[in-house]
Amino acid sequence: MYFKDSKGFPSDFLWGSASAAYQVEGAWDSDGKGVSNWDKFVRIPGKTFKGTTGDKAVDHYNRYKEDVALMAEMGFNVYRFSICWTRIFPTGEEAEGNELGLKFYENVIDELLKYHIEPLITICHDEIPAYLADHYDGWSSRHTINCYLKLCKTLFERFKGKVKYWLTFNELNVVKGYAQMGTHKIDSQTHYQAMHHVFVASSLATKMAHEMMPGCMVGTMYAMSGLYPLTCKPEDMMAHMNTRRLSYFYADTMVTGGYPYYAQALFEKEGVVLVKEPGDDDLLKEYPLDFITFSYYRTTTVNANTKLNIIGLAMDLNPYLEATPWGWPIDPVGLRYVMNELYDRYKKPIMIVENGMGEIDHFEDDTVIDDYRIRYLKDHFKNMKDAINIDHVDCIGYTMWGAIDLVSLSTGEMKKRYGFVYVDKNDDGSGTYNRYKKKSFDWMKEVIATN
Ligand code: BGP
Question: Given 327, 341, 391, 435, which is the most exposed site by the fewest CB atoms within 10 A?
Fold first, then answer.
């Protein structure tokens, strides 16, 4: 029995790992899989580190049993992974799903259930069939909604009774352009129109999930690394509010029953005129998300003179924080802050579905002594616990990003590692792909065992 004032985590707390199909599976052209936007994107010269691709990734497609066994050994009771759309619908246009693709995910799910690990599925983690991207301009076309819903229906039919937790999209508030939305342009009109289609698709998927799988939980994932005003100067405070809204706009629309009032000002400023169909706004209102999931890696600051990056984020550093080798500021207290911010805003259960430290690991004597990772996680877990036990935030779980090393999304590098398990693969693709436990593996096992 869990009491809010207990010292540990709730007894039914979900502990696990998170991954994305493109970054772990490999087997990019096996068993009838079609070409995705990512398969094309990484082949554009200069887009990834030294032209690396996820063609083989960390070979999870062939090694999933070993990977699931390692997760089970650590005591995980949840695993977040995503579906590669083109394994099921190679172009997005087929009437029936590809049986070999469905079978792969069924095998993974059955393997997880064998160890009592809950599958948590991201239906779309930045991936779309290249065919839909190139023929329909991806999510900027309303046609993509129907293709996505066909994918959802196929997944729900096949996995109902086995999968309770579903996320309709990944980091919806920081995705833009071809690599994530399959759109060829990145102007505001294209972006927000594409997002409108995503909102409608997510609402319809939520409706369908509840009808087909009573009791399931449907969420979406948002990038919610924290943001602080650099100073208390009123202009900096205004910049903070406006910039934070650019992040919150997406969840506000999907959780609170439709577009927030400040969307009007945003669209006026950006010259955006949304094309909607009758009933769209009702859908957003009637089928909000059940829970909020988010990634948390760092915090940054903003001031009145900050130039936002292309996805609307302020990346200014915080003089009080140290950073990882990739310059991501480390802020455990910020996690507690953001958990409260989110729960306060939506009053729905939350879950941290990505967090962790990308570091350069030194592999010696078949292991890695990653005390830096243990320290990072320990500090974050302490704040997560305080948010739950002291602040009473309803947080149902935590999945660390890449418990088994995987390929970096932003740079395509292998040497940026997050895991408890080292994968013997180098940036140039060489290596045995064998898995080795790092020092943090046993530490994490102990954390979960003692809750
Ligand atoms: C998030 C993505 C993940 C993941 C993570 C870490 O934005 O949802 O796919 O990769 O960030 O980022 P990176 O791989 O760049 O270290």
Answer: 327
